[in-house]
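Subject line: Sequence and fold of a protein, written as structure tokens
Area: Proteins and the way their chains fold up in space.
Start of record: The labelled sequence and token lines come straight after this line.
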Amino acid sequence: MTTATSPFATTIVFTEPGIADGTAAVRFAYRQPGTGLWYLLAEPGPGEAVAETMVAMDALLARDPSLAQLAAMPPGRGAQRESPGSSWSVFSIAARGAERAAEATAEAEVEAETGERVAALARRRIDLANTTGACVALAGIVALVIGGFMVLTVKQPAPLYGFAANLALGVPVIAVGLWLLICGIAGGASPRARPILLAALPIIALAVLPLLRPSEAGPLIEVLTAAWPDLLADGWRSAVRQRWHGVSIDQGLFALVALALLWRAVAVAFLGRRLAKEQARAA
């Protein structure tokens, strides 16, 4: 043994139990900055937590003489190799720490960006659902008021469909208003597409009904004129009864509202799927 390695041979090192009993080979070694303590490990990943055994260097040199090549390594340096027979590659502990810090910073930035995307998607989905729910609930309140006004004010003596005119006209409008109000409240409370789709059902029915039951006027104008015959002057009555390619004004209005609700329902569902994917990626 040379003079350079004699003090090295008597050095006490921290290592893994497998290296101490000879079942594992040293592939990663370093000295702590400042203290100069030696750590000999089988892998670079676990760190000092697995180096729970203290042993004299000469016991390891007897099994692996290539460890003598590390004798001159100063504190703050480390060395690693692919296998016991390969050459050592020396590195700086500070440089390795900077690399790990940079990797940790990059990972933190990626997590922050993912969190921002998740929060933005959640806000967009909630805002869209809340806005749609508020509009639907407001339409339901308006329908409830109109239906209640019909029940209280319509005085036609002749029954409609076997019922008193005020009930035959007002109760269906109240039912639609109540349905829209419930769907609107549900849509605002839970950002999902189902309440919006359910709210669109009566609007779709009002848009499709004139196709199944052709009449001179659309369903809205027909109900209003049946409830209050003198509501519109003759000129306005003729104007609102005009059809464009067979589509009445209120029928077209209901179709536009239904399409808007369906589009918003699809948008809420799409944002929900994107949100689920981003959350799964972040996890």
Residues 6-87 form one domain. DSSP finds nine helices and eight strands in the chain. The first strand starts at residue 12 and ends at 15.
